[in-house]
Design brief:
Blueprint lengths: L9 H29 L2 H6 L4 E2 H8 L3 H13 L4 E3 L2 H7 L7 E3 L2 H7 L10 H4 L1 H5 L5 H7 L9 H24 L6 H7 L2 E5 L5 H9 L4 E6 L2 H14 L4 E5 L11 E7 L8 H11 E12 L5 H7 L3 H16 L15 H11 L3 E4 L7 E7 L1
Parallel strand pairs: 4-5, 4-7, 5-6, 7-8
Antiparallel strand pairs: 1-3, 2-3, 8-10, 9-10
Length: about 375
């Protein structure tokens, strides 16, 4: 109900309604991006100098009318460029079959080039699986208990893989690892490495291929992700990698591991402090831990004022990250933006680590830390 001490401001009402329905517009367009990715429409456009809706439909073996309406959404959302004359558009009264559609080079990088570090289709790949959890959320809100990543099904695991693999492939070996004290030399000589929260195994397989004298273990609790990792291991032909499920296998023995990595997973864990203590325990005295996690502010105000993607990240947290972190009754529930550097350092020092250093690596989403005993 409207507060009795203030009447509705018509202009403020219009602006508020516009903001609300802009969020809906983004959600619907996100669904259209998912469809474009799944049907290969972006890849078809990326391989051309411009196509009509009929040309796209023929290349994709689809119905032209459906493709044309999809194109209209993409043009309106400023994702796809329409090459038509306004005179012809006015005469026809609509965007007709003769309109041509193109992707800018930047659009190709984000939408169609899986080798480019800016490729962004991973989150859209898993969009239906993520939104499907909306039916579970009312009960989670009532009980306080969420759901783990396997609740998103196999597409959830593939979506995460497609989200992080392009950047990792481009920069992990040449940019990130060289910033760590002595790690490259050790990897070349031969050491034991554990990647916790390995997902589909992209990072650990990449490192294993680059450093054949070292041995690698990827650890996760997602059966869907580990199934993908097993497939990729067979395809790779590598013999210095193993994958294990932390639910059914014990973690490595104390003081047995030289180097541990965790990529975007600590904030998802039900018991992050225990995991950090386990990392401390398994590392040798001269071992090190590469912690990569979401770049976050220490307060809501800081996140909202400095992060233009804060609304997205808090929403994804409810649908995925915090839901995972609360998938047990006693989970800490950090969530997507719940693990800022001050808390990360505090948890690390509680576990016994004496050295905590944020690395000078530019990334739009993640922060990178070198942590040592």
């Amino acid at each position: 109900m409207t507060s009795p001490d203030r009447a509705l401001d018509p202009e403020a009402l219009k602006l508020f309604s516009f903001n609300v329905f802009s969020q809906l517009s983004g959600a619907v367009t996100a669904g259209m991006i998912h469809i474009g990715d799944q049907l290969g429409l972006y890849r078809i456009l990326a391989a051309s100098d411009g196509l009509t809706s009929n040309g796209i439909a023929q290349a994709a073996h689809l119905s032209e009318r459906w493709v044309r309406e999809w194109c209209a959404n993409q043009v309106a959302a400023r994702i796809v460029t329409a090459g038509y004359s306004y005179e012809a558009h006015e005469a026809a009264g609509h965007i007709d079959e003769n309109t041509t559609y193109k992707l800018t080079p930047e659009a190709v990088a984000v939408l169609a080039n899986e080798e480019h570090p800016a490729f962004g289709m991973g989150m859209f790949h898993r969009l239906p699986a993520t939104f499907d959890r909306l039916k579970d959320l009312p009960e989670s809100f009532r009980t306080g208990v969420g759901f783990d990543y396997d609740a998103h099904g196999p597409d959830g695991a593939v979506g995460i893989e497609r989200s992080f693999e392009p950047w990792s492939n481009a920069f992990l070996i040449d940019l990130v690892l060289p910033t760590l004290t002595g790690v490259i030399d050790k990897l070349r000589t031969g050491i034991s490495v554990v990647d916790i929260g390995c997902g589909a195994g992209s990072a650990v397989l990449l490192m294993a291929k680059q450093f054949p004298k070292s041995t690698f273990v990827g650890i996760d609790i997602s059966e869907h992700a580990l199934a993908r990792a097993a497939e990729k291991l067979v395809q790779s032909g590598l013999s210095n990698v193993n994958f294990m499920n932390a639910k059914t296998s014990d973690l490595p023995k104390s003081s047995s591991i030289d180097f541990v990595t965790t990529f975007d997973c600590i904030h998802d864990m039900t018991y992050p402090r225990k995991m950090i203590a386990d990392i401390y325990r398994m590392l040798k005295e001269d071992g090190s831990w590469l912690l990569v996690d979401i770049k976050a502010g220490n307060t809501l105000q800081e996140n909202v004022s400095k992060n233009p993607m804060a609304a997205l990240m808090y929403g994804i947290s409810v649908l995925s990250c915090m839901a995972s972190a609360l998938s047990d009754h006693n989970g800490e529930g950090l969530g997507t933006l719940g693990f800022p550097s001050l808390l990360a350092e505090d948890f690390a020092r509680q576990a016994g680590f004496s050295s905590f250093q944020q690395l000078d690596i530019a990334h739009s989403v993640n922060a990178f830390y070198e942590i040592r005993k």
